[in-house]
Design goal:
Distance between the termini: 18 Å
Strand order of the largest sheet: 1-14-3-8-9-10
Shape: globular
Number of strands: 14
Helix content: 25-40%
Length: about 230
Amino acid sequence: MKHSALLVAVLFSLSAVPSPATLSMWQSEVAAGTAPAATLFTTLTSPVLFDIGALSGDRSLEFIFNGNAAAEGSVSSALIGTQSAANGRQGLKYEQWNNTGFFGATAFGVADYTSTVPVQDNVTLHAVFTSNGTTTDFYLNGAYAYTFDAMGLALTGVQGLGAASNADGTGFFDVLSGSVFGFASYDSALSASEISSHFAAFQAIPEPGTAALAGLAGVMALRRRRRETV
């Protein structure tokens, strides 16, 4: 049972934290395609204020992150957002509201929108929200997942990343419990094929099973050493 628990712990850690090579492949794909307005290629474990660029009309927001809705100290958690009216007064949510366990979006002071896409705690995910200004399509791990029919993205300028920021930029709320490993914004609506290619690059390295096998090899070596000392 102890060996099984150790094995589960290794696999869990691999699923929760992407390798630098994996992130590098995604970053290269981002740079090779539609020019981003802004990127953040460092890991965030707490929220920051970040300028996503002067976006207008069509726009897209892309994240590589993991979250833990079950551990949230508040009743919802935001990937990005702000209460500032000048910067869009919206939030994109990992968990929309009150432990319901679904991705969502909010037009602060207007309405909450809950998708039918369940959260996946402690797993690294690739998420893209792309909008024509009237509706917003949500893609998860390279595939179309949901459309927010009544909400077009208006986010622009300085936002809370890993949370939503207060209107005056002095603090955060709806803080994400987890990490943001990469972010990109675009002053255009990414196509479904480009979103798919970004995710394909992200999952291309390590090769299927390589990292897991490396972890398992370590576990098996540990088991052999223990047997040899008995």
